[in-house]
Amino acid sequence: MPHLYAIAIGSNRRHGRFGRPPQVVEAAIARLDADFGLFDASPIILNPAHGGAGRDFANAVALVESALDPAAMLPALKAIERDYGRRPGKRWGERVLDLDIIAWSGGKWRSSGLEVPHRAAASRAFVIQPLAAIAPHWPIYGSLNARHLAVRLARRSPVRGPAKHAAS
Predict the structure, then answer these.
(1) Contact at 8 Å (CB) between 135 and 41?
(2) HSE-up (13 A, CA, CB side) for residue 56
(3) In a domain? residue 34
(4) Concatenated DSSP letters for the chain?
(5) How far is CA 79 from the centre of its chain?
(6) Residues 98-117: what's their mean pLDDT?
(7) Neighbours of 143 (CB within 10 A)
(8) N or C: which end of the chain has fewer CB within 10 A?
(9) Mean pLDDT in residue range 42-55
(10) Range of the domain at 58
(11) Which CATH number is 14's domain given?
């Protein structure tokens, strides 16, 4: 039986084939569709880099279907990152593509190196606001859903609106 996943997508570095970060995010959404089956995707937003990562980010959230459990989904997402040129480096460094499991329809999951829902999701407007745009009632922590968390975060740290897709 397929599971539904909320996957956070981020880019703050140009890609040789796909171009600027908003186009990298668009290409990643298409790749997730090809590999897993896209259920929905949020608008792409632009926001300041988090934790000293350098350039501003383009971010979105995609809802994808997969029969994989989270322990198998994570390496599949990391393989996509590598295909886009992501290499191991400093934790908060610039990256062509970052894919994170935010939540899945199976509820909580915890294993070595993976916790779902993503423990930092509730504090990141660049994750919660796009998720709330496409799945406002998705429960994140107990009775708190994406919409509840987005309202809380909007009071503290607004992100910029949808990305403008200007030529490279």
Answers:
(1) no
(2) 11
(3) yes
(4) --EEEEEEEEE-S-BTTTBSHHHHHHHHHHHHHHHH-EEEEPPPEEEPPSSS--S-EEEEEEEEEES--HHHHHHHHHHHHHHTT-----TTS--S-EEEEEEETT--EEETTEEES-TTGGG-HHHHHHHHHH-TT-EEETTEEHHHHHHHHHHH-PPP-BPP----
(5) 15
(6) 90
(7) 7
(8) N
(9) 76
(10) 3-156
(11) 3.30.70.560
Tokens of 65: 């279907």
Given a contact cutoff of 8 angstroms between Cβ atoms, the answer to whether 101 and 114 are in contact is yes
User: What is the separation, in whole angstroms, between the first and last Cα of the chain?
Assistant: 41
> ∠ at Cα 65 (131, 113), nearest 5°?
75
Answer whether residue 21 is part of any domain.
yes
User: Predicted confidence band at 25 (pLDDT cuts at 50, 70, 90)?
Assistant: very high
**Number of domains making up the chain:** 1
pLDDT band for position 168 (cuts 50, 70, 90): very low
User: For residue 162, is it within any domain?
Assistant: no
Dihedrals phi, psi of 19, to nearest 5 degrees: 95, -145
Amino acid of residue 92: W
Count Cβ atoms within 10 A of the Cβ of residue 62 and give its class: 0-12 exposed, 13-18 middle, 19 or more buried. Answer: buried
Q: Which of 155, 116, 113 is nearest to 138 (CA)?
A: 116
Report whether pLDDT(120) > 90. Answer: no
The verdict on residue 76 lying in a domain is yes
